[in-house]
Amino acid sequence: MRQPGDEQSVVTSSQERRRELGQFLTPNPVADFMASLFDARPQELDLLDAGAGDGALTEALVRRLCASRLKPRRIFVTAFELDETKIELLHATLRRCQQECDSASIRFSATVLNEDFIAAAVPIVRKELFAPKQPRFNAAIVNPPYRKIRSDSSARLLLRSAGIETGNLYAGFVALITKLLADRGELVAITPRSFCNGPYFKPFRADLLETMSLRRLHVFESRSAAFSCDNVLQENIIVHAVKGVPKPEQVIISSSSGASGGSVTEREVAYREVVSPADAEQFIHLAEGEAQDSARAVMGRLSASLPELGLSVSTGRVVDFRAKEFLRQQPGRDTAPLIYPCHFNGGFVHWPKEKARKPNAIVSNEQTRELLVPAGVYVLVKRFTAKEERKRIVACIYDSHQVRASLVGFENHLNYFHINGHGLAMNLAKGLAAFLNSTVVDVYFRQFNGHTQVNATDLRSLNYPAKAELEKLGRRIADPGMPQEEIDALVGEELF
Ligand SMILES: C[S@@+](CC[C@H](N)C(=O)[O-])C[C@H]1O[C@@H](n2cnc3c(N)ncnc32)[C@H](O)[C@@H]1O
Q1: From the CA of 449, how far away is ligand 1's center (Å)?
Q2: Is residue 282 within 8 Å of residue 209, measured between CB atoms?
Q3: How do residues 82-125 score in pLDDT, each as one tens digit?
Q4: Does the structure show a pLDDT above 80 at 132?
Q5: Which of 159, 193, 302, 485 could lock onto 463 through a cystine, CB 3.0 to 4.6 A?
Q6: 82 lines ligand 1 (CB under 6 A)
Q7: Is the beta carbon of 397 within 6 A of some atom in ligand 1?
Q8: Residue 287 — very low, low, confident or very high, per pLDDT cuts 50/70/90?
Q9: What residue ranges do the domains of the chain occupy?
């Protein structure tokens, strides 16, 4: 029978093994910051460190407690670590913790489990007959492994058996940890920001927000700052949350560069502004400053949903590597245009593109018919953009009048707005593209989307201006790719 972690058996180099294990060690300044977030000062601390690595997180917390005025009487640590090559270092760290505690007259003990945390925790959470008694952790500090888990993997099936549905190991770890915490137990976790929005993490988000009460969300200004030595290009977030207590009125939203000694900017934001009670998707919004507050207020005044506008947004149907045999570098008599982000040229698609690295065309026949949409005017939005880019939402118009083709294929790296699978009137398309390209939408979007994807669900979750307003705006737009100040001025005049 396959066991969780089987995927780790074929490793060729230590770097590859680290990637397999989702092993990115927390730098000391970040570990210290995480340790500083614990509020409660229990006399007896039962600490869980799942995926402990070298034990940097536990050590940071133990150090802090030993130096604090309100010292605990005792600290018990349970550290899980799957990688046997880390165990000696972990023991050494825990011996240092023991010495610190001895000097501070705190009783200390630690259990190191060189086991798969998921396999160990699931039976406890499921309260299986022969499972060990549920430990009552009142604190957990964690930087869980980040790795996708396939839908047929043993880790995924185990998690599912405990009622946890997720496609990434980190969310599985955090979900299990929240179940192992006692009421009023505190969690401080550093994870990718990807769970804050999107459909894949909806069950995890819903569970987290129901079980735990958010106290603080901390983000880093640059994607690479927190884990600079590990080349991690994830946006990360630190969550501090408490189990089984009422939601607070306010949540602290803070940010820092992630560099050692860097300053931390923080502000209090109403809980309902972080997770809107009206939002069935329960997106988590991070309004880091006044610009974000005002973008949120402006977007909150818009009232139309996409269905109310008669519009839909879908992901481009042509997945190029699955349709390889039908792709053509240049258009021919039997092809339809194939549109990629590289065809964006200002506010309009420019096609075909000479010397494009991507194919310009797709064969149009019975086999590809399902992948194509009828000629018309469509608003396209790039699906992959990063935090460092000037804009996260980049919209552009495809106009078949400029291309003269009866069908078109939109590649999967694009989202396209349509009306029941057909195009939009030009003024509506121009107004919509200009609205999407405005700074207000971009600033608002960045508050809840902390990864590199702009999913159709994200675009569906936005509030939009009324159709007549978009059309009126559209009549004033020559090119939705016009300079940003001009778009913002027109959008401001017409919509806000
Ligand atoms: C992101 S690293 C963090 C390490 C350490 N907590 C830190 O902050 O520096 C995640 C750790 O989890 C370990 N790990 C991966 N899969 C695991 C599993 N299924 N059970 C226990 N540990 C696991 C990895 O070997 C790695 O050391």
Answers
A1: 25
A2: yes
A3: 999 999 999 999 999 999 999 999 999 999 999 999 999 999 99
A4: no
A5: 302
A6: yes
A7: no
A8: confident
A9: 6-288, 307-495
Compute the distance between CA of residue 78 and CA of residue 55 in angstroms, rounded to an integer. 11
For ligand 1, say whether the CB of 192 is within 6 Å of any of its atoms.
no
Locate the ligand 1 atom nearest the alpha carbon of residue 155 and give its number: 19
CA distance linking residue 187 with residue 204, whole number of Å: 15
Output the six-digit token pair for 233.
């290009």
Distances (CA, A) of 486 to 119, 288, 394, 430, 438: 56, 26, 16, 14, 9
CA-nearest residue, atom 16 of ligand 1: 21
59 CB within 6 A, ligand 1? no
- Residue 96's SS3 state is helix
pLDDT digits (tens, 9 = 90+) for 161-215: 999 999 999 999 999 999 999 999 999 999 999 999 988 899 999 999 999 999 9
Which residue has its alpha carbon closest to ligand 1 atom 10?
145
CA of 126 to the centre of ligand 1 (A): 23
Structure tokens at 160: 């599912």
Structure tokens at 474: 């559209």
Question: Are the beta carbons of 448 and 286 closer than 8 angstroms?
Answer: yes
The residue type found at 22 is: G
* Ligand 1 binding pocket includes 236 (Cβ within 6 Å): no
Closest CA to 181 of 213, 154, 228: 213
CATH architecture of 6-288: 3-Layer(aba) Sandwich (3.40)
Whether ligand 1 lies within 6 angstroms of the CB of 462 is answered as no
481 CA from centroid of ligand 1 (Å): 45
In which element (H, E) is residue 192 found? strand 181-192
Global pTM? 0.85
User: What is the pLDDT, as a whole number, of residue 230?
Assistant: 55
- 307-495: CATH number: 3.90.220
